Amino acid sequence: MTVQTPPPSADIAETLLDMGRRARAASRALGKLGAKDRTRGLNAIAAGIRAAAPEILAANADDMAAGRAKGLDAAMLDRLALDEARVEGIAKGVEAVAALPDPIGRELARWTVPSGLDIARVAVPLGVIGIIYESRPNVTADAGALCLRSGNAAILRCGSESARSSRALVAAMRLALGAEGLPEDAIQLVPTQDREAVGHLLSGLEGQVDVIVPRGGRSLVERVQMDARVPVIGHLEGLCHVYVDGAADPDKAVAITVNAKMRRTGICGAAETLLVDAAIAESLLPELTEALEAAGCELRGDALARAIVPAMVAAREEDWSTEYLAPILAVAVVDGLDGAIAHIARWSSGHTDAIITEDQAAADRFFADVDSAILLHNASTQFADGGEFGMGAEIGIATGRIHARGPVGAEQLTTYKYLVRGTGQVRP
Amino acid sequence: MTVQTPPPSADIAETLLDMGRRARAASRALGKLGAKDRTRGLNAIAAGIRAAAPEILAANADDMAAGRAKGLDAAMLDRLALDEARVEGIAKGVEAVAALPDPIGRELARWTVPSGLDIARVAVPLGVIGIIYESRPNVTADAGALCLRSGNAAILRCGSESARSSRALVAAMRLALGAEGLPEDAIQLVPTQDREAVGHLLSGLEGQVDVIVPRGGRSLVERVQMDARVPVIGHLEGLCHVYVDGAADPDKAVAITVNAKMRRTGICGAAETLLVDAAIAESLLPELTEALEAAGCELRGDALARAIVPAMVAAREEDWSTEYLAPILAVAVVDGLDGAIAHIARWSSGHTDAIITEDQAAADRFFADVDSAILLHNASTQFADGGEFGMGAEIGIATGRIHARGPVGAEQLTTYKYLVRGTGQVRP
Q1: What DSSP state is assigned to residue B188?
Q2: Interface with chain A: mutation pick from B30, B107, B108, B117, highest number of A CBs within 10 Å
Q3: Contact B254, B280 (CB under 8 A)
Q4: Do A373 and B418 count as a contact with CB atoms less than 8 A apart?
Q5: Is the pLDDT of residue A122 over 90?
Q6: In this structure, are B152 and B223 located in the same domain?
Q7: How many CB atoms lie within 10 A of CB B275?
Q8: Cα-Cα-Cα-Cα dihedral of A110, B392, A417, A208, to 10°?
């Protein structure tokens, strides 16, 4: 049976545990496949999604109707909506993952030690990955595909808004795997939106889940970090800063700031705070303000910024820690590079921060002293993206400190083991 | 003040939080130091430990007296005991860490993408590391030194048996750092053995702790994994297997098995289970048994093993999951390579497992299908050690799947950030 159906509510624990066991079995089977088998499976999945477009669109129409009835706002409905072009985009995304280099089995390092042992560090899958995410149905396909590319079994837990669309997508993906003789349990979708299911998943399902990847808003990520009994590769919010240094090229400063904030305001790499060096604030802030407002951005300034541009709304304390994901930008005038570094150390979520300057020494110090996953010099924060990094698809941008930071692509969904080749060595 | 004194018990939460804040400040200061400063600090620590030998030995004598009064067994007392030679060994260990390549700032990868952005992945410290460990006082110096080498601030929580020795060691280490003008709060010791303190540390101290490294027995590691609200680099037990394949060279099989079990029985890389291929069990098991028993090892066999060597004690189910850390070995006769792989998949702790065979195809399949941090072909499991891997000192052998597996040395105590150099790029 390839289509998963919801369990009776009393059986949630048993259902999840069974999913965990099947995921483990699938991950063992995946481990014995070669890169070509995984590529074949991914291409079959892309074809299967195309073939199932009518069912996927019908399911999405039901999600959209339920979303409208529930009063979802226009932005959320847009993220949820699928049409033929978007389904084709999802299939193309899976094909792009199929075209990525396979990360499994790569020799990451190899050396010989004085005892004569030959030691190799070789990439292997993480195992079973639980992915908990919100609304957008394309994440279902992206996450499943990235896990398969990296030899991992995926247990997906989608948001309730996209549950019908995700179920149709996963059914198509599993059908395609099964038809190719590949383990269809490599991609499973939790068949209930009951929150209890998330709790079971976070418990690790008696050791069957190796890693949890939460992808969503702050409350989801915080719940996961609090309750998970297995490792988490966390994706906190993107509270990204653009610092315009005294030695900035004004044209670059304006173009980058407007792009960083306004190209797309709803992504985690969008800038949320602009820091302007006091040394050039008087000359540059009016120009920056004008360009941002012309692009439709609301500005909220600190006292120093409002002294220069009095029309600006006054920023409150919480503006420095708010991920607007909207055309709003907090603006502070800071005391040079040190002031910018101190502001970022206090408020950044460790995601992505940029400096605009022609002073190489200032850029070097910004790179050394700011501790975020991604630092940019003279480029827009909106480049914080696995595709723009040349990593193909990504499952998100990790803001934690261990295992993976920044874009999490197929390579980041691996671990390694040591293969030690001897000739009879015993340890003295 | 460089010597830390215990707090009034009511103030444990505040004391720990203050330690966390001071560790964070020290980690920021460490981040601005260069490799030469860290090396200078490490050499000063080694000298400081030598100079403080009388105080350290006096404190250790008190620990030993308390340990005897508490009824610690001879093996535990031996692990706890220091003398001048052992203190010199601890100092030399710190000098060995000083001689290691500094892992911070290394460019791990660098590439250019079509947008023209130049992307570099650069190693940075994890930040603040909480290390929770048991009895042996040398861990105090090793862990503090490895954290300093990798630019991390350490909050150490030692076992109660070695508390006085550890306090004297940490006092010497902090004094040495302070005298060199380096941040002495880079190495702090929790000044109370109250278990409540561990709870606070595991909570992450309001975001001041980035990673917890537990190093100790199963109950410690399980408590840490259950209660930690921050990432854990876990070191579970070493339930290591030696599989003697039908195509094994009998001399290598005997020498490696005896060494893997008996060289030192109390370390995590010691073998706990011997698996013998049924194809050669009848000819080889008596010889293996004789050699192991001659070395002082007790054997506990399954029914098939006892059919060949009837004098063997009968193994019970729990023998397959017991880390003896003693001269006892569980023995099972398995149905060839597949039987060995199945036994290991069921019982291994994912630490270290070895195959003895002259059949390259069997070794290759063992390497592919067994999923442990370290796999060895024709070599003793006792090589599972950072020093033997050429990594210098280690803080333990990680058995988890994320961030680091196998020996955790200075390089494994780092993470990375991306430095992206642009020329004004905005994202289309």
Answers
A1: E
A2: B117
A3: no
A4: yes
A5: yes
A6: yes
A7: 27
A8: -170
Q: Is the torsion defined by CA of A392, A395, A398, A402 positive or negative?
A: negative
Closest in A127, A371, A418 to B401, CB measured:
A127
Co-location of B214 and B245 in the same domain: no
The radius of gyration of chain A's CA atoms, rounded to the nearest angstrom, is 24
Q: For residues B186-193, give the mean pLDDT.
A: 95
Task: For residue A368, list chain B residues with Cβ-Cβ distance below 8 A.
Answer: 31-32
Residues 6+ positions from B54 with CB-CB distance below 8 Å: none
DSSP labels, A241-292? EEEE-TT--HHHHHHHHHHHHHS-TTSTTSEEEEEEEHHHHHHHHHHHHHHH
In this complex, do B233 and A416 lie within 8 Å of one another by their Cβ atoms?
Answer: no
Residue A4: its pLDDT value, please?
55
Of A259, A331, A319, A266, whose CA–CA distance to A291 is shortest?
A259
Burial grade of A314 (CB within 10 A; 0-12, 13-18, 19 or more): exposed
The reply to whether B278 falls in a domain is yes
Beta bridge partners of A67: none
What tokens appear for A422 in the block? 């001897």
The 10s digit of each residue's pLDDT in B30-50 is: 988 999 999 999 999 999 999
Q: For residues A63 and A204, state if they share a domain.
A: yes
Domain residues for B301?
Answer: 240-388
pLDDT at B346: 94
pLDDT of residue A234: 80
Nearest to A348 by CA among A271, A420, A279, A288: A271
For A392, the closest chain B residue by CA position comes to: B113
Nearest to B401 among A210, A259, A405 (CB): A210
B415 contact residues in A (CB cutoff 8 A) = 401-402, 405
- Strands, E, within B246-308: which ranges? 271-277, 298-301
Phi, psi of B84 (to 5 degrees): -60, -40
Asked whether residue A122 falls in the same domain as residue A108, the answer is yes
pLDDT digits over A12-45, tens only? Answer: 999 999 999 999 999 999 988 999 999 999 999 9
Give the chain A residue nearest B249 (alpha carbons): A424
B402 and A231 in contact by Cβ < 8 A? yes
User: Could you tell me which of B143, B139, B146, B153 has the C-alpha nearest to residue B210?
Assistant: B153
Residues B199, B255, single domain; the answer is no
Contact A361, A250 (CB under 8 A): no
Distance, in Å, from the CA atom of A64 to the CA atom of A58, rounded to the nearest integer, reads: 10
Residues A82-101 have a mean pLDDT of: 95
Which residues from B are below 8 Å from A238, CB to CB? none
CB contact under 8 A, A371 and B232: no
Could you give the number of structural domains in chain A? 2
Contact list in A for residue B368 (CB cut-off 8 A) is 31-32
The confidence score (pLDDT) of residue A1 equals 38
Residues A309, A312, A317, A323, Cα dihedral to 10°: -120
In a domain, A416, yes or no: yes
Mutate to test the interface with B, among A261, A376, A427 (most CBs of B within 10 A): A427
User: How high is the pLDDT of residue B8?
Assistant: 56
Q: Specify if B318 maps to a domain.
A: yes
The ipTM (two decimal places) reads 0.93
**Nearest by Cα to B94 from B23, B32, B172, B34:** B172
Distance CA(B318)–CA(B300), nearest Å, equals 11
Specify the pairing of strand A397-398 against strand A406-407: antiparallel
C-alpha A21/C-alpha A416 separation (Å) is: 22
Q: Are A348 and A273 in contact (CB under 8 A)?
A: no
B107-112 and B118-125 as β-strands: parallel, antiparallel, unpaired? Answer: antiparallel
* Token code pair at residue A320: 């420095």
Task: Scan for tokens 């110096």, then name that residue.
Answer: B141
Question: What whole-number distance in Å separates Cα of residue A421 and Cα of residue A404?
Answer: 29
Task: Give the dihedral sign, CA A114/A115/A117/A121.
Answer: negative
